[in-house]
Amino acid sequence: MHAKDGYGVCSNGWYARFARAPPASDGPSTARGRDLSERGRFRDVSPYERLAVDAPPDAVVSALRESLRSRAITEYAVVDHGRDMAAAGAPGFVAWTLVFGNPAAGAKLLERDLAAAVDIPLRLAVIAAESGGSEIVLRDMRTLLAADLAALADAFNDVLRALAADARDRATAAS
User: pTM for the whole thing?
Assistant: First the structure.
């Protein structure tokens, strides 16, 4: 991982924003969302992962919807935040949230913790990137689910990352 504009960037193109490390006197933390890589120090890690896409946001939304269809994943909603905000008289942002899922996968989660219903169906966001193009944003499911559900969280994360990467590839191929 290397730093880029305040973000840690992985070799696969994913990056996450890191906050400054607090003074060492604050001590280590075991809370979710903490990076404990520096002995005796901790820093907050954003629960969001971002994948840069060299394509306009609307093309990325279309590519993501195509990726969902190709995998027979149920699309529940596409929220166009900018349109909805503008309709309410508020400044609109170029941002969408896609809500989707697989009921069989959701059942595996809910049989372990029914309260986890608040964290499904899954979602990905598509936002305009500051430098042009787009970003696909996901929230690491480990930040939402209890520690004993880590294996399921990882499986959901794998699906989210695969969908995002496929949408990136589809959108950039079409550009």
Answer: 0.75
